[in-house]
Amino acid sequence: MQLAVLPETVTDLRFTARQPGTFLVECNKICGVGHSEMRTQLVAETQDQFAAWLASQSSSVVQPAGSAQASSPLAQGRQVFQLNGCAACHTLKDVGASGTIGPDLDGIGTLAAQQIKDPSYKGHATTAQDRIREAIVSPYTYIPPGFQANVMPGNFGQTIKPDDLDALVSYLAAQK
Amino acid sequence: MNQVTAVTMQEESRLDTRKLGMWLFLASEVMFFGGLIAAALNMKWHSPAGANHALNIPVTAVNTFVLIVSSTAVVMALSALQDGKPKTARNWMILTALLGTTFLGIQVNEYIKLIGKGFTPASGLFAGGFFAVTSFHGFHVFVGVITLIWMIVRTTRGSVSPDNYVPFEAWGLYWHFVDVVWIVLFTILYLL
Amino acid sequence: MAEGYAPAARGGWVVHGATSWRDYFKFNTDHKVIGTQYITMGFIFFLIGGLMAEAIRAQLSRPGNTLITGNLYNELFSLHGTIMIFLWVIPVLTGVANFIVPLQIGAQDMAFPKLNALSLWLAVLGGLLMLASFVVGGAESGWSAYPPLSEQTGNGQTLWALALFVIGFSSIFGGLNFLVTIMNLRAPGMTLMRLPLFSWSMIATSIIILGGTPVLAAALALMLWDRVVGTHFFSATGDPLMWQNLFWFYSHPAVYIMILPGFGIISEVLPVFARKPIFGYKMIAFSSMAIAIFGFLVWAHHMFTSGMNPLLRIPFMLTSMIIAVPTGVKIFSWLATIWGGRIRFTTSMLFALSFIAMFVIGGLSGIFLASIPIDIDVQDSYFVVAHLHYVLFGGTVQAVFAGLYFWFPKITGRMLNERLGKIHFWITFIGFNLTFLPQHWLGLEGMPRRVFTYPPEFATANLISSIGAFVLGIAVLPFLANILISLRAGKLAGANPWRSLTLEWTLPSPPPIHNFPQLPVVISDPYGYGRKQSAQPAQPQPTSRPAPTGGGQ
Asked: Which of B20, B189, C98, C140 suits a disulfide with C35, CB 3.0-4.6 Å?
């Protein structure tokens, strides 16, 4: 099955899943640099399983788009993570993200500190916080082994407001 | 003229090579303007109802008349050539060139006024379609005037003459085509 | 004698005829020189586009490869497609037609020789602009350049659009020239029903060029306006789908521009090497015209998954299936032509026979794609890539080689080496099928096109395909060697080494500057192989005699 998505247009694709399972969904029309890696999963499950999943969604409610009003600094960072599509590619249990295209971010606070001490590290960060910031705004300065250049968008430095970026970095640095 | 004029047993009824070439070129131009006009119409349908109210119908109606008169001048010029009066033909050609230039001048003036009012190629969907298709048309008028000047030169020199009027006849087909395209554009963009 | 065939000695900038290799770099109005220029230019771009393909297949030889990724990869497949279509296939077919059509119809040159030279140099200019776009970078949205992406890519995309715009005019003027030439400059006695089928195919091709290419020009103009002036024809607030409609309105008929001359070449080659008249001359001629007309009615089959109105897809599915019929007519006519013939397996004939087989495979995958439910599954997958290469490489390119091996003696006066030719053929055949046969499976199993990596389960098929591409690359070498050696030391061909009956073979090889010393008068169709003449058994029928003004022959 496939159907194109067009800007400012609603297109409609309907189907009946005849068996439960996890299915591959991939981008099928050249869309830019990340086209080859743009994929995700479609999960078909029984009515009961779906009801359970739906009930668990309210535990990670996202505030309206654009507003990073939060009750705690970490909450603001979590919302920035959720609002910028990071879950599409990264795993982070704290928000229920299970993306597999980019590095796993569980424990990234500790990992980042180790990365900068690794002899193969080529970037300019001296602390875990700096390393996390560098990985967001300048991802190709140092790409961890096993991953490729030109997949993570390189313009988060322009699209995320400085205040939100700080909160995001603090939030991620707290994931130990 | 450097093409073969092969004399064959069946060729008396064939269309002159230069005229056939011009007709086929005009057929391709129909497809080119067809694509542009389809796009402009599509932009019109995607636009709110009053999108073309910025356009000045009275002035452009006069301009349309100018172009139609210029086509008449072309007919007169060809007729004069065929009647053996090259000097008269040349005068009609000069009139045509003046009318064509007038058309272009009025068009450019209209563009300037529209842009001043905020109706620019980037200001809206219909505006973009309007400017794109009319400027391609204007370019064709411009090319027509330049090639007409070349025809006038050739008529003065005698290489276009009552004995060899087909080059001008073929050119005339182009000019009439440009006129017809304008009538279509005026109707679709201004009147509808 | 017609005026205008000024020998080079008249000075000035317009040269007619070639006395040295330098004349091939000038604005030369002789159709034979222009034809050679087109063929050479086309072949150079074949090699450039081919190198791009080798790079792509090298990257795809294993999953997760990091040889070429991201922007560069996207640019490579975009320009590979664009160059192969607009700078190899279309120019080389134009070149063969330029050389051969006036000779086949008994004319001294094309109807508009200066326009002809202008067309060639516009194509060269377009080619240079296209290479510039590759250097600048940014033409990364595929050869089909869908917006919004194609309006967000780098400056190379603007150059790409400009290059295509220029090439489009080269094509339009060429089509105009062929149509006027064939309609008006045929020798006495050459009625349309005696016209060689290659020239018939050029009538149909020219009609498509004149009807379709200007719409591409309009689409490109609007894209350039969007990118440079800031209009919104195809942007998010405009109508991105409109690009697809305008683009495919040309680009579908364009594939018929690319195949019809190939069909024409096959119709010339088969009778000569089977020593039998062509079967179904009228059906072949009229089916070309039918394809030309129907070709304009199928374009939205490229858009079945675009979000277009679902009901509107159905008429396009119907027309896309119906258009297989005229082609089927040709296939059966060709098979009937060689049935019971005395086949001579020259290299040209090998490519022609292989053409029939490979094109049928490509045509069949095309019929599958015409079906909406199947297309919804495999659109934009490697199944489409397999289909298009079977019809364009297995089809057109093999037909081009059949034509080059056939007409090389006429163009240069020397024979190509048959042994090297057969090596070229077999390596091509093996490499081609190794490369593209597995891609049918890849597409059906879900591998998308235009990707630089894939899941591990596709690794074996991709590896086989990449090995095949490597073999295809090698195949070019015996061909190049053959050309270079034969140009200097090939056996002298004489006027008619293949004992063919079309008019070009009545002239010396290569033909003199002004082609026919006396205008021929045509007295029969050119496919009378094996027809007995009362006093002379097993001789080809004369198809022409000189016009009564000259002496005897």
From this structure: C98
CA distance A4 to C147: 12
The closest alpha carbon to A31, from C380, C82, C246, belongs to: C380
Q: What are chain C's domains?
A: 29-529 (1.20.210.10)
CA distance B15 to chain C (A): 8
Phi/psi at A44 (nearest 5 deg)?
Answer: -105, 125
Judging contacts by C-beta atoms under 8 Å, the chain C residues touching residue A4 are 305-307
Q: Which of A96-105, B165-174, C391-400 has the lowest mean pLDDT?
A: A96-105
The single residue listed with the structure tokens 């007919």 is: B75
Domain coordinates in residue numbering, chain B: 15-47+57-191
What is the sign, positive or negative, of the torsion defined by CA atoms of C450, C453, C455, C459? Answer: positive
The answer to whether the beta carbons of residues C54 and C473 sit under 8 Å apart is yes
- A71 pLDDT band, cuts 50/70/90, is low
Tokens 């068009």 belong to which residue? B107
- Using an 8 Å Cβ cutoff, are B99 and B91 in contact? no
**Beta-bridge partner residues of C448:** C381
Class of domain B15-47+57-191: mainly alpha
Is residue C282 pLDDT above 70, yes or no?
A: yes
Mean pLDDT confidence for C127-138: 96
ipTM: 0.93
Does residue B30 contact residue C212 with C-beta atoms inside 8 Å? no
Distance from C-alpha of C516 to C-alpha of C186, rounded to nearest angstrom: 12
CA distance C291 to C322: 10
Closest residue on chain C to B1 (Cα): C4
- Best mutation site among A26, A36, A143 for testing chain C: the one with the most C CBs within 10 Å? A36
Domains and CATH numbers, chain A: 1-61 (no CATH), 68-173 (1.10.760.10)
Cα distances from C265 to residues B81, C202, C429, in angstroms, run 46, 10, 19
Q: Which residues contact C534 (CB under 8 A, 6 or more apart)?
A: none
Q: How far apart are CA C528 and CA C180, in angstroms?
A: 27
Nearest beta carbon to residue A29 from set C152, C380, C452: C380
Give the C-alpha separation, C250 to C322, whole Å. Answer: 19
Peptide bond into C148 cis (omega under 30): yes
User: In chain A, what residues touch C70 (CB-CB under 8 Å)?
Assistant: 33, 148-151
Check: CB of residue B106 under 8 Å from CB of residue B66. Answer: yes
For the cut 80, the answer to whether the pLDDT of residue C171 exceeds it is yes
* Tokens 């006069």 -> residue: B62
Two tokens, residue C530 = 């094996």
pLDDT per position as a tens digit, C434-478 = 999 999 999 999 999 999 999 999 999 999 999 999 999 999 999
Beta-carbon contacts of C279 under 8 Å, excluding residues fewer than 6 positions away, are C333, C334, C336, C337, C339
- Report d(CA C99, CA C101) in Å as an integer: 6
Give the span between the Cα atoms of A29 and C37, in whole angstroms. 37
Verify whether the Cβ–Cβ distance A7 to C148 is below 8 Å: yes
CA-based R_g, chain A, Å:
18
> Cis ω on the peptide bond leading into residue C315 (within 30° of 0)?
no
Put simply, whether C142 touches A (Cβ < 8 Å) is: yes
Average pLDDT for residues B107-132, to the nearest whole number? 96
- Tell me the per-residue pLDDT of B135-157, one tens digit each, with 9 for 90 and over: 999 999 999 999 999 999 999 99
Give the C window 394-453 contacts with A, CB below 8 Å: 446, 448, 450-453
Angle at Cα B112 formed by Cα B111 and Cα B115, nearest 5°? Answer: 85
Axis-axis angle for helices C155-184, B17-45 (nearest 10): 140
Residue B19 has pLDDT above 80, yes or no: yes
- Chain C nearest C-alpha distance from B146 (Å): 18
In chain C, the residue whose alpha carbon lies closest to the alpha carbon of A31 is C149
